[in-house]
């Protein structure tokens, strides 16, 4: 799936909003963007765009390019663990 595109002004607005909400650092590796100006910040869909399409700020985090590329379109492990803990197979009901 191709990377979704966004208007540059909206991208800047989201980056300011997320920096105020989460701090001016990468959500995954926690490295500060201020101290490392060469490290480019990106907008990352925490829940991958193919599952949660659109640009809902509740699903966006700031990430450095390296972490964003490493994560790709995969589900983050904390979310996988939460889903596995919540939806345990022994609680599944089979219907005919
Ligand atoms: Zn990072």
UniProtKB/TrEMBL annotation:
Classification of source organism: Bacteria, Bacillati, Actinomycetota, Actinomycetes, Kitasatosporales
Species in which this protein is naturally found: Streptomyces coeruleorubidus
Annotated protein name in UniProt: Endonuclease
InterPro entries assigned: HNH, HNH_nuc, NA-targeting_endonuclease
Keyword list, A-Z: Endonuclease, Hydrolase, Nuclease
Domain annotation HNH: ranges: 26-73
GO MF term list: endonuclease activity; nucleic acid binding; zinc ion binding
A Pfam family that the UniProt record links to this protein: HNH
Alphabetized CDD domains for the sequence: HNHc
